[in-house]
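Complex 481.
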Amino acid sequence: MRIADGQGLTFDDVLLKPRLSRVRSRSEVDTSTWFTRRIRLNIPLVSSPMDTVTEHMMAIALARLGGIGIIHRFTSIERQVAEIRKVKRAENIVIRDPYSISPDATVGEARRLMEEKGVSGLLVVGEDGRLKGIVTSRDILFQGDDVPVREVMTPRERMVVAHEEIDLESAKKLLWRHRVEKLPIVDEDWRVKGLITAADIIKKIRYPNAARDRKGRLLVGAAVGIRGDYLERAEKLYEAEADALVIDVAHGHMERALEVIKELKKAFGEDIDVVGGNIATYEGARDVIAMGSDAVRVGIGPGSTCTTRIVAGVGVPQLTAIMEAYKAASEADVPVIADGGIRNPGDVVKALAAGASTVMIGGLFAGTDESPGPIVLRNGKRYKVFRGMASLSARVGKEAVTKGVEDTEVAEYSYSTEGVEAFVEYKGSVEDIVKRLVAGLRSGMSYLGAFDIEELRLNAEFIVISGASIRESYPHDVILW
Ligand code: XMP
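Predicted structure with xanthosine-5'-monophosphate bound:
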């Protein structure tokens, strides 16, 4: 037994000292950063793979704003894959495999397919793979279900189409000139090669800061475990073109978790980035990196729903954990993801100044329009459920997904939970929260004279503060509205 040197610190224990700044305006600073060794984001925000935080809506919203969401793994492989596909299809420059229907199908079938896929039009394609026409929701509005699609579609002779080489500007002009919303791409034999839609172009203009892959689609990550179906899951997520696989375990500095990093890197090579963790020490980061991890996820117990530190007596205060991990990660040029404990915009600034390249957020993003789950009313106020993934209800749900669980097994879990289930106030759109966090970050960077996140770290000098200083930091001696 020994006592570690120094003292563990977390966000509220410190402040950053201001310094001479050349930054004239907060809009001048660059908030782009590395999520993993190869994935670049425009803002350093990542959403947690928790079932009350990140499914496709959260991931789409975050990627549009420049960050990335990690789709949780507490569901079947098929559903997790479907969530990834929804993000990947949310915005395209060119949709490579547009939904289509046969000319012999009925209007009823077309209506069902449009509803199921959430699209407003289908390409009509013959058995030979050649474009025959297009059918949109407007074409079938007042048509009976039994009418064949060929009778209501706009035939290809009356359609505007483009060829593979078309660029975005020309596509925009064509769509506008002909007042159409969909532009199929075909080869000389009318074989379908893709589809450009006005809706996608509008989104691209509306979200210039979006985090995109090489094909112009939104970035998204996916969580995997280290047992059971994890390898098959990883394969399917890889096939669905998730951009990163995030190994999602409480104790990432466990031999089994380290082996899985190696296994996934071996299986998929440089084609997909793998994130190891969670760890909270120099040695943990070093070992995760040695296995080939493309980023290190840091945090044992700082999360808003975590009880690990209470139940197991284990953890490292988050700011110290980030600094320790950064020591190992910077030697290998691998980014650090600071996971858990972010409550205020200033915490993001402190985490990045301590060495993180991104922060992962659960609780702050829970209770939004984009987080899964219904709004519930309690005493006239609106709430959403938010739960730790090691909480009793989440653990029972998780087992039910993979194995099927009997009520009698619940009692056993109740001894070993390391998280809580809670209500969080309904907060509206996540966009407002992201804007508040990014505004705080820009402000912090300007106080430290940092034009980018690397400079923020280089310029950072923390000062440890007392309990009295914390009280001074919050509004005091006034009656808050
Ligand atoms: P925040 O503070 O943003 O933290 O809500 C989110 C992170 O918390 C972790 N997490 C848990 N940790 N027991 C734990 O000890 C749990 O039940 C639990 N659920 C989530 C996770 O790392 C997440 O990203």
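The two ends are 51 Å apart (CA to CA).
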